[in-house]
TrEMBL record:
Record-linked Pfam families: Methyltransf_33 (PF10017)
The UniProt record lists the keyword Nucleus: no
Record GO terms (molecular function): methyltransferase activity
Keywords, alphabetical: Methyltransferase, Transferase
Domain Histidine-specific methyltransferase SAM-dependent: 16-315
Name under which the protein is recorded: Histidine-specific methyltransferase SAM-dependent domain-containing protein
Organism of origin: Blastopirellula marina DSM 3645
Top-level taxonomic group: Bacteria
Example GO biological process: methylation
Amino acid sequence: MDMIAPLQEVILERFYQDVVAGLSAADKSLPCKYFYDQRGSQLFDQICELDAYYVTRTEMNIMQRFAHEIAAELSHVETLVELGSGSSVKTRLLLDQLGRLAVYAPVDISTEHLYETAVALKRDYPRLSVTPLSADFTQPICLPESFPQEFVAAYFPGSTIGNFEPHQAIQLLRAIAATCRLGGELLIGVDLEKPEAVLQSAYDDPQQVTAEFNLNLLHRINRELDADFQISQFRHVAQFNSAASRIELYLESLTEQQVTIGQQEFHFAPGERILTEYSHKYSIAQFTELAAAAGFAVEEYWTDDREYFAVMLLRV
Ligand code: AVI
Protein backbone atom coordinates (compact mmCIF):
# COMPACT_ATOMS: atom_id res chain seq x y z
CA MET A 1 0.00 0.00 0.00
CA ASP A 2 1.24 3.51 -0.78
CA MET A 3 1.75 5.17 2.62
CA ILE A 4 3.33 8.35 1.26
CA ALA A 5 0.21 10.05 -0.14
CA PRO A 6 -1.86 9.82 3.10
CA LEU A 7 1.20 10.92 5.10
CA GLN A 8 1.64 14.00 2.88
CA GLU A 9 -2.03 14.84 3.40
CA VAL A 10 -1.68 14.64 7.17
CA ILE A 11 1.42 16.86 7.06
CA LEU A 12 -0.38 19.40 4.84
CA GLU A 13 -3.45 19.41 7.08
CA ARG A 14 -1.19 20.06 10.11
CA PHE A 15 0.52 22.93 8.24
CA TYR A 16 -2.89 24.44 7.42
CA GLN A 17 -4.10 24.13 11.04
CA ASP A 18 -0.89 25.73 12.37
CA VAL A 19 -1.10 28.62 9.87
CA VAL A 20 -4.79 29.29 10.58
CA ALA A 21 -4.23 29.14 14.36
CA GLY A 22 -1.22 31.47 14.14
CA LEU A 23 -2.95 34.06 11.95
CA SER A 24 -6.20 33.96 13.99
CA ALA A 25 -4.45 35.04 17.21
CA ALA A 26 -4.55 38.68 18.34
CA ASP A 27 -0.75 38.81 17.82
CA LYS A 28 -0.26 36.99 14.54
CA SER A 29 2.53 34.43 14.29
CA LEU A 30 3.73 31.53 12.13
CA PRO A 31 5.94 28.64 13.36
CA CYS A 32 9.55 29.00 12.15
CA LYS A 33 9.81 25.27 11.42
CA TYR A 34 7.86 25.94 8.20
CA PHE A 35 10.71 28.06 6.76
CA TYR A 36 12.42 24.94 5.47
CA ASP A 37 10.76 23.85 2.23
CA GLN A 38 13.15 23.18 -0.65
CA ARG A 39 13.64 26.89 -1.48
CA GLY A 40 13.79 27.84 2.21
CA SER A 41 16.52 25.26 2.83
CA GLN A 42 18.49 26.61 -0.16
CA LEU A 43 18.15 30.15 1.17
CA PHE A 44 19.23 29.03 4.63
CA ASP A 45 22.36 27.46 3.10
CA GLN A 46 23.05 30.84 1.43
CA ILE A 47 22.56 32.64 4.76
CA CYS A 48 25.19 30.35 6.31
CA GLU A 49 27.69 31.59 3.69
CA LEU A 50 27.05 35.30 4.28
CA ASP A 51 29.81 37.46 5.78
CA ALA A 52 27.24 39.01 8.11
CA TYR A 53 25.96 35.65 9.42
CA TYR A 54 28.75 34.76 11.85
CA VAL A 55 26.92 31.75 13.36
CA THR A 56 27.87 28.83 11.08
CA ARG A 57 31.43 29.95 10.47
CA THR A 58 32.13 30.59 14.12
CA GLU A 59 30.77 27.22 15.26
CA MET A 60 32.77 25.50 12.51
CA ASN A 61 35.96 27.25 13.60
CA ILE A 62 35.42 26.16 17.21
CA MET A 63 34.81 22.57 16.14
CA GLN A 64 37.96 22.54 13.99
CA ARG A 65 40.15 24.23 16.55
CA PHE A 66 39.07 22.03 19.48
CA ALA A 67 38.24 18.80 17.61
CA HIS A 68 40.89 16.86 19.56
CA GLU A 69 39.74 18.07 22.97
CA ILE A 70 36.09 17.48 22.13
CA ALA A 71 36.83 14.00 20.81
CA ALA A 72 38.88 13.19 23.92
CA GLU A 73 35.89 14.04 26.11
CA LEU A 74 33.65 11.84 23.96
CA SER A 75 36.14 9.05 23.25
CA HIS A 76 34.00 6.39 25.03
CA VAL A 77 30.85 7.16 22.98
CA GLU A 78 29.45 4.20 21.01
CA THR A 79 26.12 5.64 19.84
CA LEU A 80 25.87 9.20 18.52
CA VAL A 81 22.39 10.61 17.90
CA GLU A 82 22.31 13.84 15.87
CA LEU A 83 19.23 16.03 16.15
CA GLY A 84 18.55 17.23 12.61
CA SER A 85 19.96 15.38 9.63
CA GLY A 86 23.51 16.63 9.72
CA SER A 87 25.53 16.04 6.61
CA SER A 88 27.79 18.94 7.40
CA VAL A 89 31.52 19.17 7.90
CA LYS A 90 30.85 19.57 11.64
CA THR A 91 29.28 16.11 11.80
CA ARG A 92 32.10 14.59 9.78
CA LEU A 93 34.68 16.13 12.12
CA LEU A 94 33.07 14.22 15.00
CA LEU A 95 32.70 10.98 13.05
CA ASP A 96 36.37 11.18 12.03
CA GLN A 97 37.54 11.57 15.60
CA LEU A 98 35.37 9.18 17.64
CA GLY A 99 37.32 5.92 17.57
CA ARG A 100 34.80 3.76 19.51
CA LEU A 101 31.75 4.99 17.65
CA ALA A 102 29.63 2.08 16.34
CA VAL A 103 26.31 3.75 15.47
CA TYR A 104 25.52 7.18 14.04
CA ALA A 105 21.80 7.99 14.02
CA PRO A 106 20.66 11.27 12.46
CA VAL A 107 17.11 12.10 13.58
CA ASP A 108 14.77 14.27 11.54
CA ILE A 109 11.10 14.60 10.83
CA SER A 110 11.72 15.39 7.16
CA THR A 111 12.63 12.01 5.70
CA GLU A 112 13.91 13.10 2.29
CA HIS A 113 16.97 14.98 3.50
CA LEU A 114 17.51 12.39 6.23
CA TYR A 115 17.94 9.47 3.82
CA GLU A 116 20.07 11.47 1.34
CA THR A 117 22.40 12.35 4.20
CA ALA A 118 22.53 8.78 5.43
CA VAL A 119 23.46 7.40 2.01
CA ALA A 120 26.37 9.84 1.65
CA LEU A 121 27.67 9.15 5.17
CA LYS A 122 27.30 5.39 4.78
CA ARG A 123 29.48 5.56 1.67
CA ASP A 124 32.17 7.61 3.42
CA TYR A 125 32.10 5.71 6.76
CA PRO A 126 31.66 2.04 5.77
CA ARG A 127 32.67 0.78 9.25
CA LEU A 128 29.92 2.75 10.93
CA SER A 129 26.30 1.67 11.21
CA VAL A 130 24.48 4.76 9.86
CA THR A 131 20.87 4.44 10.96
CA PRO A 132 18.56 7.37 10.21
CA LEU A 133 15.55 7.71 12.52
CA SER A 134 12.52 9.51 11.22
CA ALA A 135 11.13 11.11 14.38
CA ASP A 136 10.21 14.36 16.05
CA PHE A 137 13.25 15.12 18.18
CA THR A 138 11.28 17.41 20.51
CA GLN A 139 9.96 14.14 22.00
CA PRO A 140 12.10 11.45 23.73
CA ILE A 141 13.39 8.99 21.12
CA CYS A 142 13.19 5.27 21.73
CA LEU A 143 16.52 3.96 20.44
CA PRO A 144 16.40 0.54 18.73
CA GLU A 145 17.63 -2.31 20.96
CA SER A 146 20.36 -3.11 18.46
CA PHE A 147 22.14 0.18 19.34
CA PRO A 148 24.82 0.06 22.04
CA GLN A 149 22.94 1.70 24.93
CA GLU A 150 25.67 2.27 27.49
CA PHE A 151 27.53 5.24 26.06
CA VAL A 152 25.04 7.38 24.18
CA ALA A 153 25.69 11.00 23.23
CA ALA A 154 23.51 13.48 21.36
CA TYR A 155 24.77 16.22 19.04
CA PHE A 156 22.65 19.32 18.47
CA PRO A 157 24.69 21.86 16.48
CA GLY A 158 23.75 25.15 14.82
CA SER A 159 22.21 26.89 17.87
CA THR A 160 18.77 25.66 16.79
CA ILE A 161 18.00 25.53 20.53
CA GLY A 162 17.87 29.35 20.32
CA ASN A 163 14.78 29.16 18.10
CA PHE A 164 12.76 27.78 21.03
CA GLU A 165 11.45 29.96 23.84
CA PRO A 166 13.26 29.16 27.11
CA HIS A 167 10.38 27.07 28.56
CA GLN A 168 10.20 25.07 25.31
CA ALA A 169 13.99 24.76 25.24
CA ILE A 170 13.90 23.19 28.73
CA GLN A 171 11.25 20.70 27.56
CA LEU A 172 13.33 19.84 24.51
CA LEU A 173 16.49 19.38 26.63
CA ARG A 174 14.49 17.11 28.98
CA ALA A 175 13.48 14.98 26.00
CA ILE A 176 17.13 14.79 24.91
CA ALA A 177 18.17 13.83 28.46
CA ALA A 178 15.62 11.00 28.37
CA THR A 179 17.06 9.81 25.04
CA CYS A 180 20.67 9.88 26.33
CA ARG A 181 19.76 8.39 29.75
CA LEU A 182 21.72 8.80 32.98
CA GLY A 183 25.40 9.40 32.31
CA GLY A 184 24.74 10.28 28.67
CA GLU A 185 26.02 13.46 27.07
CA LEU A 186 24.88 16.26 24.82
CA LEU A 187 27.22 18.35 22.65
CA ILE A 188 25.27 21.48 21.76
CA GLY A 189 25.92 24.70 19.81
CA VAL A 190 24.77 27.83 21.65
CA ASP A 191 24.75 31.34 20.19
CA LEU A 192 25.99 33.86 22.76
CA GLU A 193 25.14 37.47 23.57
CA LYS A 194 27.01 40.04 21.46
CA PRO A 195 26.75 43.68 20.31
CA GLU A 196 23.33 44.51 18.91
CA ALA A 197 24.75 45.87 15.64
CA VAL A 198 26.35 42.49 14.88
CA LEU A 199 23.02 40.72 15.45
CA GLN A 200 21.10 43.29 13.43
CA SER A 201 23.28 42.83 10.37
CA ALA A 202 23.32 39.00 10.74
CA TYR A 203 19.50 38.89 10.62
CA ASP A 204 18.96 41.76 8.19
CA ASP A 205 21.89 41.23 5.85
CA PRO A 206 22.84 43.75 3.14
CA GLN A 207 22.25 41.16 0.39
CA GLN A 208 18.67 40.69 1.65
CA VAL A 209 18.97 36.90 1.68
CA THR A 210 17.38 36.71 5.14
CA ALA A 211 14.54 38.91 3.87
CA GLU A 212 13.95 36.48 1.01
CA PHE A 213 14.15 33.53 3.45
CA ASN A 214 11.51 35.12 5.68
CA LEU A 215 9.20 36.12 2.78
CA ASN A 216 9.54 32.64 1.27
CA LEU A 217 7.22 31.42 4.02
CA LEU A 218 4.39 33.38 2.36
CA HIS A 219 5.27 31.88 -1.05
CA ARG A 220 5.10 28.44 0.55
CA ILE A 221 1.68 29.14 2.09
CA ASN A 222 0.39 30.43 -1.27
CA ARG A 223 1.63 27.36 -3.10
CA GLU A 224 0.78 24.62 -0.62
CA LEU A 225 -2.34 26.00 1.06
CA ASP A 226 -4.07 27.74 -1.81
CA ALA A 227 -3.55 31.24 -0.42
CA ASP A 228 -3.24 34.64 -2.10
CA PHE A 229 -0.63 36.59 -0.14
CA GLN A 230 0.72 39.48 -2.23
CA ILE A 231 4.33 39.08 -1.25
CA SER A 232 5.31 42.59 -2.40
CA GLN A 233 2.86 43.95 0.18
CA PHE A 234 4.90 42.59 3.09
CA ARG A 235 8.40 43.41 4.31
CA HIS A 236 11.00 41.58 6.41
CA VAL A 237 11.76 43.06 9.84
CA ALA A 238 14.51 41.90 12.23
CA GLN A 239 14.36 43.48 15.67
CA PHE A 240 16.48 42.91 18.77
CA ASN A 241 14.50 42.53 21.99
CA SER A 242 17.07 43.31 24.68
CA ALA A 243 14.83 42.40 27.65
CA ALA A 244 14.40 38.88 26.26
CA SER A 245 17.91 38.79 24.68
CA ARG A 246 16.61 37.64 21.34
CA ILE A 247 16.31 38.59 17.69
CA GLU A 248 12.69 38.60 16.53
CA LEU A 249 11.80 38.20 12.85
CA TYR A 250 8.54 39.57 11.53
CA LEU A 251 6.69 39.98 8.24
CA GLU A 252 5.08 43.41 8.26
CA SER A 253 2.04 44.34 6.18
CA LEU A 254 2.69 47.46 4.10
CA THR A 255 -0.99 48.22 3.52
CA GLU A 256 -4.47 47.38 4.74
CA GLN A 257 -5.26 44.08 3.06
CA GLN A 258 -7.27 40.85 3.08
CA VAL A 259 -5.66 37.46 2.52
CA THR A 260 -7.54 34.25 1.75
CA ILE A 261 -6.13 30.88 2.78
CA GLY A 262 -8.32 27.99 1.69
CA GLN A 263 -11.77 28.92 3.06
CA GLN A 264 -10.50 31.46 5.61
CA GLU A 265 -10.03 35.24 5.30
CA PHE A 266 -7.50 37.24 7.29
CA HIS A 267 -7.35 40.99 7.69
CA PHE A 268 -4.10 42.95 7.98
CA ALA A 269 -3.87 46.56 9.16
CA PRO A 270 -1.05 48.71 7.73
CA GLY A 271 2.08 48.04 9.82
CA GLU A 272 0.60 44.87 11.39
CA ARG A 273 3.21 42.16 11.91
CA ILE A 274 3.39 38.38 11.79
CA LEU A 275 6.02 37.01 14.19
CA THR A 276 7.95 34.31 12.32
CA GLU A 277 10.99 33.51 14.48
CA TYR A 278 12.78 34.04 17.79
CA SER A 279 16.52 33.54 17.96
CA HIS A 280 17.64 33.67 21.60
CA LYS A 281 21.16 34.66 22.57
CA TYR A 282 22.47 33.38 25.90
CA SER A 283 25.33 34.02 28.29
CA ILE A 284 27.20 30.91 29.43
CA ALA A 285 25.68 31.39 32.91
CA GLN A 286 22.13 31.66 31.54
CA PHE A 287 22.48 28.59 29.38
CA THR A 288 24.03 26.64 32.28
CA GLU A 289 20.93 27.48 34.33
CA LEU A 290 18.59 26.48 31.51
CA ALA A 291 20.43 23.16 31.07
CA ALA A 292 20.29 22.53 34.85
CA ALA A 293 16.50 22.97 34.78
CA ALA A 294 16.43 20.07 32.30
CA GLY A 295 18.75 17.86 34.40
CA PHE A 296 22.03 18.57 32.57
CA ALA A 297 25.32 19.71 34.14
CA VAL A 298 27.93 21.55 32.07
CA GLU A 299 31.10 19.44 31.79
CA GLU A 300 33.11 21.73 29.53
CA TYR A 301 32.65 24.37 26.86
CA TRP A 302 34.67 25.86 24.03
CA THR A 303 34.31 29.33 22.49
CA ASP A 304 35.90 31.50 19.82
CA ASP A 305 38.16 34.45 20.65
CA ARG A 306 35.29 36.97 20.46
CA GLU A 307 33.05 34.69 22.55
CA TYR A 308 30.29 34.92 19.94
CA PHE A 309 29.39 31.22 20.11
CA ALA A 310 29.88 28.25 22.45
CA VAL A 311 30.01 24.52 21.87
CA MET A 312 28.95 23.08 25.22
CA LEU A 313 29.29 19.55 26.56
CA LEU A 314 26.50 18.65 28.99
CA ARG A 315 26.02 15.48 31.03
CA VAL A 316 22.75 14.04 32.38
C1 AVI B 1 18.41 27.71 12.39
N1 AVI B 1 18.63 28.87 13.27
C2 AVI B 1 19.65 28.57 14.27
C3 AVI B 1 18.88 30.13 12.56
C4 AVI B 1 19.13 31.28 13.57
O1 AVI B 1 20.14 31.94 13.45
O2 AVI B 1 18.32 31.45 14.49
C5 AVI B 1 17.73 30.49 11.65
C6 AVI B 1 17.89 31.81 10.95
N2 AVI B 1 16.97 32.73 10.85
C7 AVI B 1 17.42 33.76 10.17
N3 AVI B 1 18.68 33.55 9.87
C8 AVI B 1 19.00 32.31 10.33
